[in-house]
Amino acid sequence: MFESVKTLLAEHEDLQGQLSDPALHSDPVRSKRVNRRYAELSRIVAAYHEWRGLSDDLEAATEMADEDESFAEEIPDIQENLDVAQERLRRLLIPRDPDDGRDVIMEIKGGEGGAESALFAADLLRMYLHYAESKGWKTELLERNESDLGGYKDVQLAIKSNATDPAQGVWAHLKYEGGVHRVQRVPVTESQGRIHTSTTGVLVFPEVDEPDEVEINPNDLKIDVYRSSGPGGQSVNTTDSAVRITHLPTNIVVQCQTDRSQHRNRAEAFAMLKSKLYELEVRKRQEQQAKLEDSKTDIGWGHQIRSYVLDQSRIKDLRTNYEVGDTQRVLDGDLDKFIEASLKQNVA
User: Fold this and answer.
1) Per-residue pLDDT, 210
2) Using CA atoms, how far apart are residues 44 and 50, in angstroms rounded to an integer?
3) Which of 54, 77, 160, 223 is at a distance of 20 to 30 A from 217, taking alpha carbons?
4) What is the 8-class DSSP label of residue 235?
5) Which pLDDT tens digit goes with each residue over 140-154?
6) How many Cβ atoms are within 10 Å of 325's Cβ, its own excluded?
7) What is the rounded CA–CA span in Å between residue 320 and residue 110?
């Protein structure tokens, strides 16, 4: 049983040797990859040793039971603990999403509903910022296009974690948040007290942290620099520091103007482009896999995933049917139950 663990034990030992090599830590990208994998395997190794130890205990107790009744009395407890350890190890050996340990770039875009949609985009941004804060993650606004009423037509956010355990990674928690979020409420823009329904889109991309994961041909790029601007188009910088990159084969456009340094804005824009291209490739593979397996319909862009019926104090996830009545608590960042429901539904 669990013969496949032997290969993982050998890999774990090899990674342990790499971590003791000072040269590893001079390469931040490789060091992050090794630490991430080592943390993942360490949980499996610990579970395996626990299972192996309990198996040996059960075998020894069974052999000694005929000679000493005290050993026979221990057998039921050992067997119960062994069953629990065996199930824990089995679950850890289920192949997990290889991107779980990655940081993410999130994009929140206004949709149907005009100014109200942009205001709701600001509410969602605040919700995710509070959720990230509750997890101890770092956040950085990469790009924002504000509406006249203070909301966002489009806002992009980087969310990063120092966790080495993939199960605690940002992507592991937020990968099912992508989709259309629908809100029903009386907006501040409504003078007659009428209820409006609008939608806001959330896109979540795993951040690419290894240069060789996404190859970009410089000839496929159109790079423009321009002066940063704020709401209403007023200039906020007197130099051409803002950067816009267009990937011609896919027509993906990214831009960054949050920093006064053109070099930093260019680097952030490239990071966003790599993440979007990586997500595009992952989505293509998933679609091909879904066709082969004839699996359940994918929830993607254009599908409503969560309904915020705020005039009735109700928020419901349309995929898992999980529903809560404390809407303000959710909008303040309490998303754990929604995320747990999505993870449970998608566990193999």
Assistant:
1) 59
2) 10
3) 160
4) B
5) 998 888 888 779 999
6) 10
7) 24
Of 101, 92, 109, nearest to 44 by C-alpha is: 92
Least Cα distance to 255 among 159, 155, 180 occurs for: 155
Q: What gap in Å lies between CA 317 and CA 300, rounded to an integer?
A: 14
Contacts with 36 (C-beta within 8 Å, 6 or more apart), sequence order: 101, 164, 166
The residue length of the chain stands at: 348
Q: Beta strands of the chain (E only): which ranges? A: 104-110, 138-146, 152-160, 179-185, 196-206, 221-226, 242-247, 252-256, 304-309, 314-317, 323-324
**Model pTM?**
0.66
**Sheet containing 323-324: which strands, arranged edge to edge?**
138-146, 152-160, 104-110, 196-206, 179-185, 304-309, 314-317, 323-324
Average pLDDT for 239-245:
83
Residue 274 in tokens:
């790599």
| pLDDT, greater one: 14 or 143 | 14
Report the CATH number of the 104-209+228-235+254-346 domain: 3.30.70.1660
pLDDT tens profile 206-227 = 887 655 567 788 889 999 988 7
